[in-house]
Design a protein that fits this description.
This protein is of the alpha/beta class. It is 30% helix and 23% strand. The protein binds ligand 9MR.
Amino acid sequence: MANSSRAPGRSRRLRAALVVSAAVGLLATAGAVVLPGSASAASTLGASAAERGRYFGTAVAVSRLNDSAYTTILNREFNQVTAENEMKIDALQPNQGQFNYGNADRLVQHARSQNMLVRGHTLAWHSQQPGWMQNMSGTTLRNAMLNHVTQVATHFRGQIEWWDVVNEAFADGGSGARRDSNLQRTGNDWIEAAFRAARQADPNADLCYNDYNIDNWNDAKTQAVYRMVQDFKSRGVPIDCVGLQSHFTGGSNYPSNYRTTLSSFAALGVDVHITELDIRNAPTDAYRNVVNDCLAVARCKGITVWGIRDSDSWRSSENPLLFNGSGQKKPAYDAVLTALNNGTPPPTGNPTTPPPTGNPTTPPPGGGCTATVTPGQVWGDRYNTSVTVSGASTWSVVVAITPPQRISTTWSGSPTWDSSGNVMTMRSNGSGNTFGFTTMMNGNSSARPQIRSCTAG
Ligand code: 9MR
């Protein structure tokens, strides 16, 4: 997440609520209400990931949104999307100074309508540059790149959870060097310049460096990216996350030290994301391992597969995805869902005994319902709470949080917030009479949520 210079803004809280609404929608679809901290078996990838504080997403080709079989799976299973090509430089600025946001905006609209989070991909890259940019060099190119970063991040401000600010800037092989490119030739500081411009344009988006073949901890390329992130953190360059593309296709396999790689990056103080996962022939073991590795690392925020059906894949002949060309779930799908469902929330600290139930319920006179708090699981940095309403089938419950604690995730209700972000009104949404939420302690481990009111109707 953000470094200390960033205010946890309203848009971030709204996006947190989006994660949850996605889970709610998915749970509602599945006809299940899942209590936090309890054994559960969500029936979709997104719902199961959300229960574990993660997202499960996919790359989307906007043209396929017209394919109802595709969109049905997308909307049912996933709570995060990445534009496969529509937010790349050539798509967004085909002619210098002429921006074309149509397809990208369509995806963002679709995501918002489905309460999905959006990963922006990608602001600066040596590939898929429009012709006019390919022909540039030196200061002219540097300025054009920074202008692109600024314009695009500004256009999407408030709608993008994470930006892949820079993509694939390191060379393959054993050199550990930067990849040669027109951008690299503008000076070694082009990457940090791009991150600074992105932060300025959209202070609430998390900013990621994204690359492939950085999965094996022993690879020179992995080590080189690690050293760059370490350097950025030490000098205050605004970087929040590292994306491991994890294309285990075309010759690169899932490495047994993958979890070490995830946790080593995380130990630098950045989140990690698995951003473009696909695995040749979709072996169940490798897919299961990736999920288990992510769940084992607290800062692994989620997994994005690079397409929905095998027929949608950039490497369709390798059948690397979770659904076959007919849209049916493959064994790898079942392996992933089971691994998610079996996963416990990440070990961010020693689980502690939940505080006594107490009696935090305060139904106001005439409210027409009663809200009863049940404390849930507690970790080092956060805890779950569930609230059960009795006496009404439609209701709104007002919950107050003591700052600096903050609710990061909710489920099985529709939340709105007051301007301070400390008071949440949760309304029933057809998911049953129990809703839940996760509260980040932010240094205050003793305060617990207070129910202010329960109102029927
Ligand atoms: O899947 C994308 C494919 O449709 C494009 O033709 C290709 C062009 O470079 O990019 C593919 O996506 C890439 C992603 O943007 C960055 N990491 C590697 C992905 C697979 O090539």
